Amino acid sequence: MESNVVLKGSLAFLGLAELLQQLGGGGSTGILKISSSWSGVPGYIYLKNGNPVDAEYGKITGLEALNGFFGWRKAHFEFMEEDVNRDPVIKKSRMELILDGLRLVDEGVIPIMGENDSDSHKSRSGPDQLPVLNGPVVDYVYVVDEEIFQDGDEIVIQNRFGNWFWVILEGTVEVVRITENGKAPILRMTEGAFIGSIVSFLRDGNVRSASIYAVGRVQLGVVDSELIAREYSSLSEMFQNILISMDKRMKQLTDVCTALVLKHSPPLSGKPGGKRFIDKKQNEHKIFFITRGQAFVYVKMKKKYIHLLTLGVGDLIGRIPFLNAAHEPYSAHVYVSDDIAVQPIEASVVEQEYEALSSTLKNMIQNMTNSISVTTGRIFDLIRSAGQSDDAD
Ligand SMILES: Nc1ncnc2c1ncn2[C@@H]1O[C@@H]2COP(=O)(O)O[C@H]2[C@H]1O
Predict the structure, then answer these.
(1) How many Å lie between the centroid of ligand 1 and the Cα of residue 35?
(2) Whether the predicted pLDDT of 75 surpasses 50
(3) What is the pLDDT of residue 318?
(4) Average pLDDT of the residues in 47-72
(5) What residues form DSSP beta bridges with 341?
(6) For residues 174-191, average pLDDT
(7) Most CB atoms closer than 10 Å: which of 121, 179, 304, 329?
(8) Is 50 exceeded by the pLDDT of residue 58?
(9) Nearest in space to 220 (alpha carbons), one of 185, 199, 191
């Protein structure tokens, strides 16, 4: 019974949001059991390939049960790796679940269990505490060389050219955006995470979008980029465009995160312009490429709209179910310019192509979606902590 427990600890140290990110990054399948002395019965979250598919708390199941767990602070967890044969009752992406769960706690919709109110923000990773991005077990088949870096070494230098990749074999690195206003630490990455932009093959020279430093001793595996480049060039144009658009999303999020860390240009608030394009009921399961005009992705927090992304021609609107990388439709609102024109995409066609990829390329794509998810989580934490001083209004 005890042998398949692969991770256990306290939610007071590792909040549920961070725990779900970690299990998600590793693509874990199994059951997360949460126990608290404040509750008579334990709760369960069922994960398949890193995504919560169902949850149970007594007679409460699905999304309602899962949301409630965001309010559990003085609780212990155990993750048991095993097959999960449940229909996916929870349809939202991991990122949407985390963002919504935290928002519902902030808004007081989900009560905090086992803690007095003044402590309620403490256990979540604070604005100065960097989230950590991990990855699945490393597949050594595509590792052609190994490199060692010591604490503080600069592994990647922002704005330099470079289009090779590493996978982290051991240790932790920190991603830092350098600007004229100062250095903005964005997040940390550890075992299994990839370093390097996935779309770098497309350009003559990939300009590094951030600097990366070793935190302690780090061992990196150099990824066989020729192998990846060959596979990448065999992808359909549509699939390549999806990856390019996801990479753009990640870079824009890193811009927003940087501005928040450096406390420059507070994120735009107020009612967005343009017309509403996508919401929970309408277009829920649809995906589109923009063929003309622009789309603006906003999240609503504490009655304010925060402008996260500007999407243009060739970009994707909507969520590809297995990719887990979009904020809309559940956690974000999309507004569009008057001249917008879009072309629908069939998710099943994209999925077929994805399923045929090598596990390495799949891992690299998942790494990008995890980066989007973790960076968004950090943005929300920064906004929340900045917003706490506004709460009095
Ligand atoms: N927000 C982010 N989340 C995760 N990794 C990032 C983020 N921003 C930059 N990086 C990493 O930092 C690297 C800098 O060089 P590249 O642009 O080639 O690829 C980038 C990514 O690997």
Answers:
(1) 36
(2) yes
(3) 84
(4) 93
(5) 292
(6) 95
(7) 329
(8) yes
(9) 191
User: In 3-state terms, what secondary structure has residue 101?
Assistant: helix
Q: How far is the CA of 210 from the centre of ligand 1 (A)?
A: 6
Clarify whether residues 259 and 305 are in a common domain: yes
Domain that holds residue 79: 5-107
* Domain limit, last residue, from 74, 107, 140: 107
Q: Which of 152, 204, 211 is nearest to 184 (CA)?
A: 211
Distance 251 CA to ligand 1 centre (A): 8
Instruction: Take atom 3 of ligand 1 and give the residue whose Cα is closest.
Output: 371
Which residues, 6+ apart, have CB-to-CB distance to 118 below 8 Å?
none
Bridge partners (DSSP) listed for residue 45: 32, 55
Q: ipTM of the predicted structure?
A: 0.99
Is the shortest distance between the CB of 208 and ligand 1 below 6 Å? Answer: yes
Q: How many residues does the chain have?
A: 393
Same domain, yes or no: 52 and 152: no
Q: Which contacts (CB < 8 Å, 24+ apart) does range 49-52 have?
A: 50/23, 50/24, 50/25, 50/26, 50/94, 50/366, 51/24, 51/88, 51/93, 51/94, 51/324, 52/20, 52/90, 52/94, 52/97
- 309 shares a domain with 205: yes
Pocket-testing residue among 156, 159, 183, ligand 1, by greatest number of atoms within 8 A of Cβ: 156
H or E, element range at 373: helix 359-387
Say if residue 99 is in the same domain as residue 137.
Answer: no
What pLDDT shows up at residue 96?
86
| pTM listed for this prediction | 0.83
Q: In angstroms, how far is CA 72 from the centroid of its own chain?
A: 22
Which one has a higher pLDDT value, 388 or 376? 376
Can you tell me whether residue 57 is helix, strand or coil?
strand
For the chain, what is the mean pLDDT? 85
The verdict on the CB of residue 186 being under 6 Å from ligand 1 is yes
How far is it, in rounded angstroms, from Cα 284 to Cα 92?
11
Residue 329, pLDDT score: 65
pLDDT single digits (tens) 313-364? 999 988 787 776 677 766 788 899 999 999 999 888 888 999 999 988 999 9
